[in-house]
Specification:
Elements: H1 3-8, H2 26-41, E1 48-55, E2 58-69, H3 75-80, H4 84-103, E3 107-119
Parallel strand pairs: 2-3
Antiparallel strand pairs: 1-2
Helix pairs in contact: 2-4
Protein name: NTP pyrophosphohydrolase
Length: 126
């Protein structure tokens, strides 16, 4: 037997292959996506709703979430942030990458609906 036979006895990381299969329920993937979305959007997980389905060998996500924004009376913080549409598009890309990394599945579709905003409390300097 050649080197190809050795590859069949190992996992991609060089570990021995264990007979059987691994199945991750859709509910687990949804929870991972919800936790990740809450982190990315800077809101509590109760402010995030996720629908997930299998699509073309990967996953499709629909996320409804509030988004964390700076205090609107804080001019410096407002100036430092992009406009809302650009900010959400950036967060959408970040969410797609992070969910893909966390689940090991490619995110083929991701629809994000912003349902509200959580305004950050302005920190006072003494």
């Amino acid at each position: 037997m050649g080197p190809e036979a050795d590859l069949l006895k190992q996992g991609g990381d060089g570990s021995p292959v264990v007979p059987g299969r691994v199945r991750v329920r859709e509910q687990v993937l949804e929870k991972v996506a919800r936790e990740t979305a809450a982190t990315v959007f800077g809101v509590p997980r109760g402010d995030v709703r996720v629908d997930l389905g299998e699509w073309r060998g990967g996953i499709a996500l629909r996320v409804d979430a509030k988004i964390g924004i700076p205090d609107l009376s804080d001019d410096a913080s407002i100036a430092a942030h992009a406009n809302v549409l650009d900010h959400v598009a950036e967060k959408q890309r970040e969410l797609q990458n992070r969910v893909g990394e966390a689940t090991g599945r490619e995110v083929h579709r991701l629809a994000v609906t912003i349902t509200g905003a959580n305004v950050a409390e302005r920190k006072r300097v003494r």
